[in-house]
Design a protein that fits this description.
It is built from 6 helices and no strands. By secondary structure, the chain is an all-alpha fold. Helix 2 runs antiparallel to helix 3. The longest helix has 22 residues. The N terminus is likely disordered.
Length: 127
């Protein structure tokens, strides 16, 4: 008698198969296609293979760019991942700088040398 699989574990397994197939290098396409075609529905397999080919093509194009163009592309992508700039952030940091400066000027806090900071960190981590 065949054991029953939970739907969640089957879904997770298929998702992992999709990730594995999509992450295989382009030169490993026979294995990628075998995995996708054997273990997934034809529609899902076609999508996985299409995405994998697209990613491989994009990676090749990026590698053909100059180092400065790659850096520019990376900056654009990171800015998109970070989302829109926080309009309140600059004002909040300016207020924080003013507050800390006032604490130092009033003597409420004292500066600690970088050597002391690292000694404290080292001793804390060794515990």
């Amino acid at each position: 008698m065949m054991p029953k699989l939970r739907l969640r574990s089957l879904t997770n397994t298929r998702a992992q198969i999709c990730r594995n197939a999509a992450e295989m290098p382009a030169d490993n396409s026979p294995n990628r296609e075998h995995i996708a075609n054997t273990l997934l529905s034809p529609r899902v397999a076609a999508n996985v293979l299409s995405v994998a080919r697209t990613i491989a093509t994009i990676e090749q194009e990026i590698r053909s760019l100059s180092a400065s163009d790659q850096e520019g592309l990376l900056r654009v992508l990171l800015e998109e991942l970070d989302g829109p700039p926080d309009v309140d952030a600059e004002g909040a940091w300016l207020e924080e700088v003013r507050r800390r400066s006032a604490e130092l000027d009033s003597g409420a806090v004292k500066c600690i040398s970088v050597d002391e900071v690292f000694e404290t960190i080292d001793s804390t981590l060794k515990k």
